[in-house]
Amino acid sequence: MVVSVGAQDQGTGSRDYGVPIPAPAPARSLLLGVPKQGRRWPGVVRAGVAVCLPALAGVALGHSAVAATATLGAFAVVYGEGRAYRVRWRVVTIAAAVMVLLAGVGAAVGALVHDATAAGGSALWGMALVVAMTVVVAVCAFVVDGLRLGAPGAFLPLLTVEISSALPALGVSVAEVTAWSAAGAVSALLVSMSGLLARPRTPERAAVATAVSAVEAALSDTPAPNSRRDAVRSLHAAWQCLHDAALVGRDHPLTRTLRAAHLRCAATVDGHDADHATDVDDLRPQVPLPRPSIRYRLGRAAHLRGRSWTIVARLLVACPAAGLLALALGVARPDWAVITAAMILHQGPDRVLGTYRGLHRFFGTVLGLVLLAGLATLDLSAGALVLVVALLMAGTEAFLVRNYGLAMVFITPLALVLGGLGTHVDLVAVTRDRLLETVLGVAVALLVLWTVLPGSYRRILRDADDQVAGTIGRLGDAREPAAVAELCRDLEFDLHSSTTAAITAAHTDPAWTRDRWPEHHHLHELGYRILTRHFGPRL
């Protein structure tokens, strides 16, 4: 939802741009909304099947419930969703390798902590796990934010460490955890690529269909508060999918369909004809350019004044604090407090959206514990345990990107069932500890979100606008066509980053942002005029 607020030109003191200052969507929409985002069931099925294949095979071969550990490697299947097969195999392979590595790291740290405490060592040995989880989430969050990968981001790598660290206490060796995770990783790759031969254009068709549906919803007579934002996001995602499939620039039916939907959405901005992108959604009547190189994106993230380092700094404060508090209060394992704090902070510095994530985390955990209580009444065989884990994994995939609170309903029992391999536990003690750790994690995360680097949104917006200005300057000096094309791609990426920074600032401090807006708006308009000059006025 966007609230239009006039912004005065600070140079003349009189001109009113009339450009909108973005505001958060209504609380009800952010807390309870479940965006459609196209057909989700194929990805949900893939998530469940990726778990079932190696785990059920392991059970059939007599490996009992430990085979469910393959789920850790199968997490990688989620990262291939929405991507063309041409690049999907590479993305899933990288994600799978990360999951297997972190499963081994988590199990090794868990074994160290378990052996030390079993030998009579201090409970502070648990801080070794806290430190390991903090390092993992800080590195993963930096990479994910720098590359603009979006959800699920750093969540599943950290969950892999958290779950695998609990397994050595059940007698599962580090080698077993790593081997079963590798089996799940292979399954994730095979399942994610399973449609390549029969229907090689399915990801592209799905992305275009989702974008067309989102545009129709945004242009309907009664659009939802977030409908235009969802439409723009779907259009950008669809174009990137077509870029990955090497279809952009070709006269392909999917390209023509997406172009028509794009033009319909770009034709009106707040009821007026638009020839350049708006300040709040970066939609312009030209084809979005492909992503810059990984090196360029990580180089941009490496700026200490940027948003990625702000996220990392807050994680480095919140995660150890949450873990230490949990240990001080006598909780046997501090990992749930750490992962709670991390999941509220890892997706970005926006205070308003971060606060809503905290509410999602708490209420989703409570409902997840209720579901766990129901599962605890069942005497599950190894095969049944695998099926339950697969269903919980499918539920996680169904809602992780759409509503974090609903996803937590499935994630909570998934983590506890998998971390305990179906063994009977003291349900009262588990519920008490998880609720206490959730409250601690949420409280610490929100405190850090609002007090650590409280003025970072100003620095982030200034830095993002400076990057845009710098790229415009380099583009003006460039002469070689190849260099111009690369700089245009970089400029569009920088403009998107600037828009994201401006939205965060507007959510956090509307008054300051309103004063800053004319300068931001002028730079934004200039950048898109330059892109239009190089790539033509219209699709």
From TrEMBL:
- Pinpoint the Integral membrane bound transporter domain residues: 322-448
> One Pfam family of this protein, by short name?
FUSC_2
Organism (species) = Rhodococcus wratislaviensis NBRC 100605
By its UniProt entry, which InterPro entries does this protein fall under? Memb_transporter_dom
Can you say what this protein is called?
Integral membrane bound transporter domain-containing protein
Membrane topology category: Multi-pass membrane protein
* Keyword annotations of the record: Membrane, Transmembrane, Transmembrane helix
Quote a single Gene Ontology cellular component term. Answer: membrane
Name its cellular compartments: Membrane
Q: What are the transmembrane regions?
A: 55-79, 91-112, 124-144, 151-171, 177-198, 311-332, 362-392, 404-423, 435-453
